[in-house]
């Protein structure tokens, strides 16, 4: 069954894998926000500037609570079909859906024109340097005109009504295909007929997103983390910062102008790989933070991780210690992404 989940394929050199792969995970929930007041609804829940999105343009944004904590990360696309297309984490599906449904009812009771529809589609992620080359053989649209974070509805290898979005959580070029459940198996099987395409599991996706410095909800960000602490200030729309009209703005906006107590940072070390929950220590041996994600980096041949440390330890180049298997080893605070991203933009 693919209808509630996603399939990721990898096409490229990272991971020392074939140029394309496809993997399956219960990783995304898909929703449509309808009505004339759809932007009003979404901007009452997220930190991003949804009103400024061009037709078929999307953005990564965050649901936040009044304390400034992150409830989930999501992608919002302003479709040319007159609705907002929302992709969020399946692990947060119930609370995200309840959050949006409650706001729909609230606005409807105030006379607003807004509605919500759950999209019962599968999501196939085709990722890697040759992903678009493989997909181009099955579509008539010119994918060279589809830059990063834009989407279009098209027929894909004979399956109608697919939404193809130039994005993916790997740091590489690629697409996510929202496909009607009835055509998901056919489309996945067709893609896998190409020798360039290989299945990739969550472990592969996890190392790729970590190399790209991308957060995993529940590990690197959660309801007790603000966007500024999580080094996600770039998700805050400039207009929204000025208006301070999103949940938690009274907490989050002042953090932009001052020092926060802790920050998410990248870490690089030699030796055994750092793992989630490993303590981070100062060079004097005092525990100052915790690793939230970590793994070997196939691209760098080193071990990389993310974690939280006090602000004064967040400068790149700062030397810290990480406890791995009850032994302390040196690690260096690093800029992210660890591996440069390869998103496709129009030149």
UniProtKB/TrEMBL annotation:
Primary localization class, coarse: mitochondrion
Organism domain of life: Eukaryota
InterPro entries documented for this protein: GcvT, GcvT/YgfZ/DmdA, GcvT/YgfZ_C, GcvT_C, GCVT_N, TrmE/GcvT-like
Residues spanning the membrane: none
Coiled-coil intervals, chain numbering: none
Keywords per UniProt: Aminotransferase, Mitochondrion, Transferase, Transit peptide
Pfam families the record matches: GCV_T, GCV_T_C
Subcellular location(s) of the protein: Mitochondrion
Keyword Glycoprotein part of the UniProt annotation: no
GO cellular component: glycine cleavage complex; mitochondrion
Reaction catalyzed: N(6)-[(R)-S(8)-aminomethyldihydrolipoyl]-L-lysyl-[protein] + (6S)-5,6,7,8-tetrahydrofolate = N(6)-[(R)-dihydrolipoyl]-L-lysyl-[protein] + (6R)-5,10-methylene-5,6,7,8-tetrahydrofolate + NH4(+)
Residue ranges of domain GCVT N-terminal in the record: 29-237
Biological process according to GO: glycine catabolic process
EC number: 2.1.2.10
Keyword Mitochondrion included in the entry's annotation: yes
Domain Aminomethyltransferase C-terminal, residue spans: 262-339
Protein's job: The glycine cleavage system catalyzes the degradation of glycine.
PANTHER family: AMINOMETHYLTRANSFERASE, AMINOMETHYLTRANSFERASE, MITOCHONDRIAL
Family stated for the protein in its record: Belongs to the GcvT family.
Name of the protein described by the UniProt record: Aminomethyltransferase
Organism: Chrysochloris asiatica
Organism placement in taxonomy: Eukaryota, Metazoa, Chordata, Craniata, Vertebrata
Gene this chain is encoded by: AMT
